[in-house]
Amino acid sequence: MNKFYNAVVVLFFLAGICFSQESQKIFLSISKEFKGKTGISILYIGEENRYCSTFIKTLSRDLNYSGYFTVQGLFSNKTTDVSLIKDLTEKSEFVCIVRLLNQQMIEVKLVDSDNSERLKKVYPISTLPAYNAHSACDDIVYYLTGRQPIAKTKIAYVSGGSGSSQIFIVDYDGENKIQITDSPCIKDFPKFLSDDKLTYISYKTGYPSVVLFDLANKQEMPIFSFPGINAFVDFSKVNSEMVVVLSKDGNPEIYLAALDGNILRRLTHSSGIDTSPCFSPDGRYIVFSSDRSGRPQIYIMDRNGAGIRRISYGYDYAVAPVWSPDGKYICYLIRTQGIFQMVIYDTGSKKSSLLPVKIGWSESVSWAPDSRHIVFTRRQNYKCSIWIVDVFTGELRQLTGDKENCYSPAWSR
């Protein structure tokens, strides 16, 4: 019991540090100053039916959620009306024309304000309408912006009380929630390794251990289960490696390991606590938090542990750094006025800015593949819920209810 209690106390302390068809052309220029949205209208041509209704509704929501568009209207007409299309292109920058082909395919065509066709795709109606809508939105976003789309991504999170907690996976829009674990032990900090595998922290053995969960066969396999702390993993796609925090040698330190759990080297040797490691997208660097200077701050080191340098200044308490998938930003948390808030560090200018959104207490941040949305835990009135914020527009979206007590979200890769 004492071993379990001590392990929980230390891990929560660490968690306190962690969160206490033309050639590709970019039509929408995206930058950190980009706050406006492009107007787009959706026109359905054909007889109304349930499949197309669901498709249009989902596509509209996806385009709005993308952060790049404002859907200015949903229109329908039984036949092609050239004058209607021209009228819509005069009011919107783009018109998305949807039609059903031979009851077998659904066609999506994107027309710009000059009435020029920019994109045309077809999708089989044998596929669920919502999935096809997600695919259509992703195709539009990628074609116009060159950015990774998110409509087909998923988010994992933890839900439950102190005695038992379970991990759930949900579509990025809050649909299709699935519970993937059912064991009675405490679990926390899920993280996607791939579409069909994720890791999380399990207290099944008494100590916090890192386990790998296979979504296909529902099997759990321990990766790190040393006595003490085993926590806070991150993966490098480039090098097929992971970083992890272990206290097997006494103090919580950061280690480099192979994906099978074989430890390659110890990276930090500090008398303080080093935690929350996260790879840069190119696998060359690792950002982490450490109290080696007396108070928790954010540092970057080379992949081999050399070249440690501090990047957070002006904040008394800075923790839980996460690198954006495009490598341009690092989001971390600062404690100010008794609550944690998000800061965005620009790796180009090397400047940090407090996210100017009234969110309240924020924890456990995770970037979306598009490098503009962040999913996080919002703590309010002693309850946790999952929210998404667009770091360019400041728009907020609630993913889980206030009474569900959900936390530790992780966006799929």
TrEMBL record:
It holds the Pfam family Tricorn_N. InterPro entries: 6-blade_b-propeller_TolB-like. This is Translocation protein TolB. PANTHER family: PROTEIN TOLB, PROTEIN TOLB HOMOLOG. It comes from the Bacteria. Gene3D superfamilies: TolB, C-terminal domain (2.120.10.30).
